[in-house]
Structures are given as C-alpha cells and as structure tokens.
Here is the input.
Amino acid sequence: MDKPADLWSMRDKVIFVFGIIMSLVYLVIGISLLSIKNFLAEYDTIVKTGIGCIFIAYSFFRMWRALNNWRNRNNEDEE
Here is the structure.
C-alpha cells in the first residue's frame, strides 16, 4: 500500500523542524555550560568547558544535517 505524497512531505517537515529545534536546544545547553558560573557548579571548569564545546559542535552538526537532508529531499522532488 502506497502512502499519499502529502503524508511523506508532512513527515519530512516534522523531521526538519524537530532537527532545528533540537540543534537550538543543544546550542543553548552548550552556551549555558560555558557562560553560567553556577550551572553545574560541582564540576570542574575544564569539564564544563569540554562538554559545552561538544554540545555546541553537535548542535552545528545537527543543524547542518537537517538543512542538508532538507535540500536533498527538495532536489529529489524537482527531478
């Protein structure tokens, strides 16, 4: 049974929006770890800086992947 085309385009849109939202969440967590002194105060500054940088890098990766997948899906639809 084939699904209607509108269902797949709606699924793609939801996945794209979820990817963008999650990348923003990871970015906020990373910036919070780097800038707020009392956030997870029981951990060393080096650990907080390292984890914050990992969160920020992962947020950029999620954003790139969401945009890249969206662009590839749009290119497939045009062909």
Remarks:
- Residues 5-78 form one domain.
